[in-house]
Amino acid sequence: MKNSKHKFPYEWTLKDAVFTKDKGKVFSCFASGGGSTMGYKLAGFDVIGCNEIDPRMMEAYKANHHPKYAYLEPIQTFKLRKDLPEELYNLDILDGSPPCSSFSSAGNRENDWGKKKKFREGQAEQVLDTLFFDFIDLANELQPKVVVAENVKGLLQGNAKEYVKRIYKAFDDAGYYCQHWLLDSSDMGVPQRRERVFFICLRKDLAKPFLKQVDIFTIVPGLDLVFNEEKFLFRDVYKNYTDRPLTGQGLVLYKEAREGETDLRYAAKRMKGKKSHFGYKLTYMDSVPLTILSSDRVIIYGEERFRNFDELCECGSFPKDYDFCENKHEYIIGMSVPPVMMAQIATEVFNQWLSKI
């Protein structure tokens, strides 16, 4: 089985997983349904709690992970708490994925910066592009050994680069060496092309044994995060059934699509004279599975359907017995760091840093 050649299997279940919990303690912020949490658990860490603003995401998190500590509130108030347990001040890793749509290349980017937004009904409005600094404020308070923060590739593009400089300065002021990597989950044993930026920071008082000269101006703790696992193709996860049929205008346009096209914009141009339906992507058996979005509209070419439940779980490296608590599968998986992706990163952070501290 191709899956067995990789460090972590993308096809797995919670009930059969062995979580050793012997690599250190983790707390997860902006935890969503717990994608990163499952990655840390697969790597052997003990994830002791979470912070999340969305009650439906927290319901799913609790149902699957049973956290010792769970805080359902905005990080702006969570970071100000003075009643946090001592255990949260002795963390090995503070993890977080600050909401990032303001910087996504698929969004409005600069036009949304500084504006209050919310992801879905039931959430409080927040200025999304300041949440990263609230997270750094929390790191400054808790002083974990390592901080891991995941975000979108768009942070490294255009005017957002200035935002990254501010992130580096804030982590430096909080007492951390900060570095970032642009990683693709398809290189890490995940059947999904998903590029994300990971900021990985080591507390300065622990960093001396790992410091390396990058250039004449820069010294940082050395950390090798190069992954070259064999890529999976869509045929590796393909399941021949339909539970999300293509309907409406999407179906009409799909019938006019031509093999090799990446989405339905070209069919729309031919039929209506202008391009539309950019978000309706086409995938092929011999291609790496496309990124799962929270409103996933990836169509299997040759079939009148979107990716089904099993394909979404495997492409996202989510366990098949995950309890979605009536949330749409694509929403939780699309909002989450693929567990196998985080397991790979957490393993290297432990092997190269934490195990030697």
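Second entry:
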Amino acid sequence: MNKYKLTACGGTFDLFHAGHKAFLREVLSHSEKVLLGITSDLYVKLFKDGKNIESFEFRKKIVEDFLSLIDAKNRVQISPIDNFYGPLLTNNVNVQAIAVTSETADMAKEINQKRKQNNLPELKVILLSLNLAKDGNLISATRIRNGEINRDGRLYLNPQLKNKILVLPESLRSELQHPLAEILDKIPEKIDGAKTIAIGDITVQKFNQKNVKQFLSIIDFFVQRKPQFHELSELGFENQNIEKVSNPHGTITPQLFDAIRKAFQTTDKKIIFVNGEEDLAVLPILLIAPLGYFVFYGQPNQGLVRIEVTEINKERAYRLVDSFDIN
């Protein structure tokens, strides 16, 4: 028999992940029934700025699907909440306990203070554990959206490969010779330069001619492995931050990884100049960039490849990089 008949808990449940699953399983282990408040679209707009967060109906459905999967849907009542009190300051629900984590424990104290003022009995507080990612930090929608981890908490940048030179194996050459995504015949008319990465001298030159103002440009002064440019001005640059890295043909070096990672630490426009070859730069970019960015690079004799930084494409890049030889 579970300890409580009805326990309340709440959350946003954006980008439903392993931490959410563990939270729901644990609260269910403490109570026969659960009153689950999911933040409404209004709450998200008022308190979370509404940026990129999934709609209430979508988040609710994902939670319901999970509850059905673990045969617990009939034990959980879901309702939208416009503030973190939800219905807990009224006597409309007969709740005995509230489940929180260390991050939301102060909210439980405040709710109990308000209940006392309303002549309502104090709720027992259940402190649930937090699920951690592989690096020992929290799994969160923010970290997933920032491109650091996947929904199971695995880092996209494998720490075991840190400071290692990755060498393209023969087994992957054929796959990487093909475009990683759709091919365009021209630069799109509407493009958000702040979330655009251009790889390759000709691609960068064309983007500069179109005044895209891309966030990051990666160049090497070569075109199809033949020297073609000598000055940044030939590519359309004036004064802009530039970082030079070494990255020999067929490799991904720690210097390239570090330069790309550093590029995303600020919103300033940047140039990475590669001494060697930038053909494989799309892979570390996909691993490091936040969701929603777009990478453009030229496919010889075919056109312009556009690949969005999505969870699927991050997983693909992880698989490919994980198959590289280590030097």
